[in-house]
Amino acid sequence: MELKINKPYFFLFSKLEILIAWRYLIAKRREGGVSTIAWYSFLGVALGVATLIVVQAVMVGFKEEFTDRIIGANPHLVIQKSLFTEENKINNEIKDTLINKITKIQNIVHAYPVISGQVMGAFEGKYSGLQVVGIYKEDLKKIDLIANPEKKIGDIDNFNVGISVGKGVANSLGIGIDQNLRLISPDGLKTLFGTTPRIGDFPVKYVFKVGRYDIDRYRIYMPLFDAQMFFNKENQIDKINVLVKDPNKINEIQENLENSLGNDYEIWTWKDYSGAFLNALDVERRVMFIILSLVILIAALNIISGLVMLVKNKRKDIGILRTMGLSQNSIVRVFIICGSLIGILGTISGLILGTTFSYFLPDLQIFIEETLNRELWNPELRFLTEVPVRLRLLDLFYICFISLALSVTVTIFPAINAARLDPVEALRHE
User: Fold this and answer.
1) What does the DSSP assignment read for 51-84?
2) What distance in Å separates the CA atoms of residue 240 and residue 80, rounded to the nearest whole number?
3) Long-range pairs for 406-410: beta carbons < 8 A, 24 or more residues apart
4) What are the boundaries of each domain within the chain?
5) DSSP 3-state assignment of 122?
6) CA neighbor of 231 nearest in space, from 183, 279, 192
7) What are the phi and psi torsion angles at 180 (to 5°)?
8) Which of 113, 142, 309, 426 could be bridged to 35 by S-S, CB 3.0 to 4.6 A?
9) In this structure, how many other beta carbons lie within 10 angstroms of the beta carbon of residue 253?
């Protein structure tokens, strides 16, 4: 009796080859089915794929979320007088003229003057170092994450008669709406005996939470005129902040500004003060991708051990099939199917497990923190207040492709060895 191989049923594999491979996989171990090692390989591939998906989702999410916070809560460009000019301050007389000149540049949405300074905040015996930004109310409402934050208390329209603080500032000092926050600046009144600290009480009118630790915990917004008086900068501003239409084209806009303003001004972009950190995140993400891909490779290599054991257990079957007319190429394809199915099932299981875990990871973080009553995600170190997750289809495709490619590749060697078995010798030793 001679076995007839049907035409390819699934790519290069015939229906008969797929049937034989499937019978080997589902057979019980005492019947010569796939060994325990192969099942360990399946679990290894699944867990490797799932881990890689979760890690990539968190790292991509961290970068994208951090970038969004930078763009949404900070200026895209900062313009200030060059230190090499005779007058390194921008006064009120040239402020309006300069802003009009800046806003004429293509893709620039808004430009506004600010004053910044460091102060000590005090309320009912609690103290904290804070960053003050002096700004007009109309300009503050143009900053997206401040005007439309994750959470807010009070009304931003009351900003002119008080100050606005981050939620972290309010929590650390225990201060609420309409309560006076005492600010202490070392750069105060200049007298014959030196400079005395300036102290002022300001009512809190608006509390915001943007979800970025360094902003929520330390930043205060103060009406520009009050800031000028508080920091002894009457008739002066420190810099002009600029918002653009497309922050990704910031280099082109910076070049246009430099050509328009000349050498009297220094221009800094959001990439200048955060670009190194974002690049480091990219490097870390790529390194983790390579390391976890090696984990998948190790798991895939275990498939070889499983197939070797399967070939050993199926020596008699291979001999019978060869004597019945099954070609060496068909034997190769049978065992390639066996190994590939382990990799495919492991990859699919890992994909389901990884995407599900990634999707529920923020909720899981909240649940564990509430259960254990401790913080798992330290915002002081990571700047963001919660675990960011971003699942991208392209990343999922690359992960699955690598897993499947490795799983199929490692099956070739044991499959060839199975095909090289002499059917006479195989039957003789049974």
Assistant:
1) HHHHHHHHHHHHHHHHHHHHHHHS-SEEEEE-TT
2) 6
3) 406/296, 406/297, 406/300, 406/343, 407/45, 407/300, 407/303, 407/339, 407/340, 407/342, 407/343, 407/344, 407/346, 407/347, 408/336, 408/339, 408/340, 408/343, 409/300, 410/300, 410/301, 410/303, 410/304, 410/339
4) 8-68+278-428, 90-237
5) strand
6) 183
7) -85, 125
8) 309
9) 22
Which two tokens mark 390? Answer: 């971003």
Q: What does the pLDDT read at residue 7?
A: 45
Rounded Cα distance, 122 and 194, in Å = 24
Least confident piece of the model among 1-5, 97-101, 228-232, 342-346: 1-5
Q: Contact at 8 Å (CB) between 307 and 415?
A: yes
Gap between the Cα atoms of 122 and 119, Å rounded: 10
pLDDT at 30: 54
- Those residues with Cβ within 8 angstroms of residue 220's Cβ, 6 or more apart along the chain or in another chain: 119, 121, 130, 131, 132, 133, 163, 164, 165, 166, 169, 181, 183
pLDDT in tens, 54-113: 988 888 888 787 777 778 788 889 988 876 555 556 776 677 788 888 888 888 889 999
Q: What is the DSSP letter of 412?
A: H
Cα(161)–Cα(156) distance, integer angstroms: 10
Residue bearing tokens 């943007």: 210
Eight-class DSSP state of 314: T
Distance of CA 402 to the CA centre of its chain: 21
pTM exceeding the 0.85 threshold for the entire prediction: no
